[in-house]
Amino acid sequence: LYLDVPMRAGVQHSLDRAQANYLLGVLRRAQGDRVLVFNGRDGEWVAEIRPTGRKAGDLVLREQARPQTQAGDLHYLFAPLKAARLDYVAQKAVEMGASLIQPVITRRTQGDRIKHERLAANAIEAAEQCGILTIPEIREAIPLPAALAALTPERLLVFCDEDAPIVDPVAALRHAAAEQGGNGGPPLAVVIGPEGGFTPEERALVLDRPNTVRLSLGPRILRADTAAVAVMALVQAVLGDGR
Ligand code: SAM
């Protein structure tokens, strides 16, 4: 369970309505039962439940169960989608190892589709279900050129482009990562376009960035949410998760 409190033995946290409903109502936890909690910074902690009513209670932190782990290093840049699909991509990106989620505003999307809090809530839920102790950073939506400029030059950008020549994606990724050199491969980012695709100008802008590899995910045009999962699975399979 994610708790936004500093983790120290003896810290008491009063459950909010959703947490109380989940622990006491859904999971039927009772006085003295223990649950694992994390805040994204201080590792995983054992907490004891103290119900104070039928649908209310406290958690008292006892001891650390696991030290803090480090996240991988994969940035996920994507153009905002409709709300339900946005929930999906936020959850799947976390499950597939994204450490930073950057919504980008493109010609064929609008930034106002993004509800930052909702994106963050989805990321936390996904982290809880994955058993990871880090919460990916969720950035505010910014225009594509600014998002590209914010990437450090050594970060390899995997540009998912349905118009790219269809080549062996495993070989293309290995080649691009090897060119970059360094131990354990370069830090990575993936960028996926909106439902309507990138404009030719945007495509040129992305390709203009040094250290960008243009990748086809096959002959079929995938939905942006499918493309996101496909490319992250590919990146994990070829370059591993431990960057
Ligand atoms: N251009 C199309 C259109 O007019 O609707 C579709 C864009 S597609 C739905 C959204 C994004 O998913 C694309 O911008 C691209 O990043 C990614 N994508 C979809 N299919 C892909 C493929 N076969 N290879 C690489 N990327 C793909």
Automatic annotation (TrEMBL):
<dbReference type="Pfam" id="PF20260">
    <property type="entry name" value="PUA_4"/>
</dbReference>
<keyword id="KW-0949">S-adenosyl-L-methionine</keyword>
<feature type="domain" description="Ribosomal RNA small subunit methyltransferase E methyltransferase">
    <location>
        <begin position="73"/>
        <end position="236"/>
    </location>
</feature>
<dbReference type="InterPro" id="IPR029028">
    <property type="entry name" value="Alpha/beta_knot_MTases"/>
</dbReference>
<dbReference type="InterPro" id="IPR015947">
    <property type="entry name" value="PUA-like_sf"/>
</dbReference>
<dbReference type="InterPro" id="IPR046887">
    <property type="entry name" value="RsmE_PUA-like"/>
</dbReference>
<feature type="domain" description="Ribosomal RNA small subunit methyltransferase E PUA-like">
    <location>
        <begin position="15"/>
        <end position="59"/>
    </location>
</feature>
<dbReference type="GO" id="GO:0032259">
    <property type="term" value="P:methylation"/>
</dbReference>
<protein>
    <recommendedName>
        <fullName>Ribosomal RNA small subunit methyltransferase E</fullName>
        <ecNumber>2.1.1.193</ecNumber>
    </recommendedName>
</protein>
<keyword id="KW-0698">rRNA processing</keyword>
<comment type="similarity">
    <text>Belongs to the RNA methyltransferase RsmE family.</text>
</comment>
<dbReference type="InterPro" id="IPR006700">
    <property type="entry name" value="RsmE"/>
</dbReference>
<comment type="function">
    <text>Specifically methylates the N3 position of the uracil ring of uridine 1498 (m3U1498) in 16S rRNA. Acts on the fully assembled 30S ribosomal subunit.</text>
</comment>
<keyword id="KW-0963">Cytoplasm</keyword>
<dbReference type="InterPro" id="IPR029026">
    <property type="entry name" value="tRNA_m1G_MTases_N"/>
</dbReference>
<dbReference type="InterPro" id="IPR046886">
    <property type="entry name" value="RsmE_MTase_dom"/>
</dbReference>
<dbReference type="Pfam" id="PF04452">
    <property type="entry name" value="Methyltrans_RNA"/>
</dbReference>
<keyword id="KW-0808">Transferase</keyword>
<keyword id="KW-0489">Methyltransferase</keyword>
<dbReference type="GO" id="GO:0008168">
    <property type="term" value="F:methyltransferase activity"/>
</dbReference>
